[in-house]
Amino acid sequence: MVYCRRKEVYPMTETQERTPLSRKLYGLLAACCLICAVCGYVVGTRAGESRGAVDGYESGYTEGTNAGYDSGKKDGYQEGYDAAGSGYDNGYQAGTEAGYQTGYEEGRKAGYESGQADGYASGEAAGYKQGYQVGYEEGGGIGYDNGYKDGSGVGYDSGYKAGSDVGYDNGYKAGSDVGYDNGYKAGSDVGYDNGYKAGQTAAASRSTPSSGATKSAPSSGSSSNAAVSSGNASSAATTPGNASNTAKASGKTVYVTKTGKRYHYDNHCNGGTYYESTLDEAEQRGLTPCQKCVK
Asked: 10 Å Cβ neighbour count for 260?
């Protein structure tokens, strides 16, 4: 509040009374002071009210705001807490359903893939084991049969060839020895017989009487020579037959192979594959007779 102090008005002196202008001035000054005091009062009152209103507004606003904030905070907290509980329940339920559905789909997918992989691996292992067993049994049987057949054929051929070569060599050696002995004996017997006959003929010719005694010896020598010649002639008589037989034998048809060491008279001997040739050609190739079919 603005207080205006009243100015004292002193009594005018005589001099002042004599001067009306001064009196007027003093009156005007007093009026101005009064006006100023009134204006100051009004302005001060207004300013005070205004300031008081501002301060009161600020104080009331602050206190009201604080009180309203506290009250609103408490009420809002309670309402929010209640709403939060309801939201929690709703969110929990919705989240449970969504999580269950998502987990169910993902679990079903993962379980399907895992089961498919495990089932495939298990089926593959079982199929491989079964297929291996069946293939092993079938392959073993077929392989054994084929191996036995091939091995038997190759073994037979190898054994036959080796046995044939060894048998031929042994037979050739034994036959050569026996043939030599037989030929030697036969030749000795024939030579002995021929010599014996020639000797008898010569002896007979010497003992036969002749007309001229002086010429008997030469005659006997001649007879002896003639006997020997006749013996040779008789031997020679057999030679053309032997030559014809040799000629026939040399032109005889034989059967040979491309790589074999024997010639055969039978083209089915030993089940071989033969082609025709002549005995001369076979002997020129150094082939020897088969001990089975050439006799």
From this structure: 18
Amino acid at 180: Y
CA quadruple 260, 262, 267, 269: dihedral positive or negative? negative
Residues whose CB is less than 8 angstroms from the CB of residue 9 and which lie 6 or more positions away in sequence, other chains included: 30
Whole-model pTM: value is 0.24
pLDDT tens per residue across span 13-58: 555 455 566 666 777 888 888 888 888 888 888 888 778 878 888 8
Cα angle 278, 279, 280 (rounded to 5 degrees) comes to 90
* Helical spans, DSSP H, in the chain: 14-18, 20-207, 216-250, 279-284
Residues 6+ apart with CB under 8 A from 40: 2, 4
Q: What is the DSSP letter of 271?
A: G
Residue among 222, 223, 219 at smallest CA distance from 210: 219
